[in-house]
Amino acid sequence: MEYETVLTTCPYCGCGCKYYIEVIDGVAKDVLPCKEDPISQGKLCIKGWNAVDFVYSGDRLKTPLIKENGKFREASWDEAYGLIASKFKDIKGTHGANALGLLSSAKTTNEENYLMQKFARSVIVTNNVDHCARLCHASTVAGLAAAFGSGAMTNSTPEVEEADCILITGSNTTEQHPLIGSRIFKAKENGAKIILIDPRAIQLSKFADLHLRQRPGTDVAWINGFIHVIIEEGLADEEFITTRTENFEELKELVKDYTPERVEEITGIPKEDLVKAARMYAGADSASIIYSMGITQHTTGVDNVKSCANLSMVTGNLGKPSTGVNPLRGQNNVQGACDLGALPNVFPGYQAVVNPDFREKFEKAWGMAEKIPDNIGLTVVEMMNEAHKGNLKCIYIMGENPMISDPDITHVKEALENLDFLVVQDLFVTETAALADVVLPGTSFLEKDGTFTATDRRVQRVRKAIEPIGDSRPDWKIICELAQRMGSKGFEFKSPKEIQDEIASLTPIYGGITYDRLDELGYLQWPCPNAEHAGTVFLHKDKCSRGPGHFFAVEYKPPAELPDEKYPFTLTTGRILFHFHTGTMTRRSEKLNKEVPTGYVEINPQDAEELGIKDGEKVKVSTRRGTIDIPAYVTRKVPLKTVFIPFHFNECAANMLTNPALDPIAKIPEFKVCACKIETIGE
After folding, report:
1. Fold of 569-680
2. What CATH number does the domain located at 65-132+333-525 have?
């Protein structure tokens, strides 16, 4: 019997926990925590403990599939590559490069995301490349970059437990990021004040010193209210504002109108609680803001993020330990996929595609004969809209499942069915892959080498523990082989290590990150510009990346869709502890599926009584976009006239209902607020 343990990084949320995989005779058997890991410290969440399960699921893709007469048949890699290359060339030749779109993945490695955007820009020659960060943290990238010059978490996960005050909003941290949630508990034990601002009564409600329950979609108003109180009561950090920021007077003038009384009218937060919370936050020596998709997934998502930046700067809580604005990334490599340019507006390292110097830099480095377009490409939702109209003819998708993750799924299905050609690269025949013309079998995190970048900019190794299952291949290898099949050079990589070396040469924030250093040090946090640099624990120490921090005077705007007589409830969505994203991985774990086998809608007891709904009864939830049948969970977790649905379950998919209205800057959909109605289902 051959036994070994392989240290790797978890494929679930953005915490970036490392653990060992126990391998016996070439088969991954179990997970062992790593006590030396600075994030997990020898602990794991329920998903981490069961991370091996989905890898050996009986429905793993093991060979390429080609659809003929509406049914899939097995095919060789050579045949699949030949068909894809031919179709890509034909569509580009007939309709132009911008008739093709590519979706990269927050679940694949940095190296694979780099290659996917390189394939888009150097092989297809389009900027139509995006990934699911568009649906979760596009607002963060845009908002924090505008305020600070960098669209990333300002501080580090271990710092959380040393904060004097933690303001948590739009983040069910103990369920979505459990190992960061444990840091919040440690901070509480150390004497920190905890402020929770969330419409739902989540687990953190029991531990918070203050829990303010705002109406969904009113975040700009309560943050402006905080700043109003802080300025009026002389709690602002005048020295920080004077020496480190710009445009404060404009914000100061705007927030005069956001009195506690007016904020109560907009948000429902009692004025006394608002004042108490503002004083608590401003009175701390080190106050940290933690947020997630509850802030970002709005038509005002960028405004919400800019407002969080305003709050941190007005109190001087930036550029020092245990402070800052800290967005928690929902998937293992959302941060890395953004860093490596899997976005329509930037190359790796957030180098703008509209800048001719950057275009020339990458054209030269990649040995391109054609010019990279000077226009920003299509986002995820825009691709679906253009496909629906018939303008986008082909999409190549790696590791994404828009048939569950995107808003208004009916529209998405129609869009994908309207394509001339769809290629999906994944571990399973997902709801999206089922619509494809060609399906390519990729490999899991256990079957390849690479790196992930955690939510706190922490780049860490992913190490191969087992051989690829069946005839599946690592995504990086598939992209390289397909590019070469299309006659392109620059994809002759023999290993992810070589890809990372190219990344470092073209991406200043990753310039000093190599596999040798990661193997020696365990991790490096960007920016890490050269081989002598130790990495950066927290950002904006002496000045912001952009120079002075910029205050934005942001007015409150209501959500795109509010309840009315026909649709009297507000629907919001989110994650739960036992499942992850579209359920592709966790719903293939017997233990996790046993805990929560299907979705549900949370409804307040008073609302349930008025509608004659009993706990566990199946009900009909409808919006202007669709209807689902789903069990009711009668609970005081949700306030009156607000309901909550987790989005992991295809049989009662929350995104059949959600509103595809977009933030004008980040182009993120408004998943967190739409109007709905609830009806009982007759016998």
Report:
1. Barwin-like endoglucanases (2.40.40)
2. 3.40.50.740
Q: Which residue, 624, 571, 648, is CA-closest to 602?
A: 571
Decide whether 65-132+333-525 matches 138-328 in CATH topology.
Answer: no
> In 3-state terms, what secondary structure has residue 548?
coil
Structure tokens at 22: 């126990």
Q: What are phi and psi of 21, to 5 degrees?
A: -100, 125
Task: Tell me the CATH architecture of domain 3-56.
Answer: Single Sheet (2.20)
What fold characterizes domain 138-328? Dimethylsulfoxide Reductase; domain 2 (3.40.228)
- pLDDT at site 408: 84
Strand partners, 544: 547
Cis status, amide bond into 527, omega within 30 of 0: yes
Tokens of 238: 């005048």
Quick one: pLDDT at residue 656?
A: 84
Domain chopping of the chain, boundaries? 3-56, 65-132+333-525, 138-328, 569-680
User: Which residues, other chains included, contact 249 with Cβ-Cβ below 8 Å and sequence gap of 6+?
Assistant: none
Length of the chain: 683
Q: Which of 621, 583, 586 minimizes the C-alpha distance to 601? A: 621
With contact defined as beta carbons under 8 Å apart, do 509 and 528 qualify?
Answer: yes
Minimum mean pLDDT among 317-321, 544-548, 669-673: which range? 669-673
Residue 683 has pLDDT above 60, yes or no: no
Residue whose C-alpha is closest to residue 113's, from 385, 336, 379: 336
Global model pTM greater than 0.85: yes
Condensed to tens digits (0 to 9), the pLDDT of residues 114-131 reads: 999 999 999 999 999 999
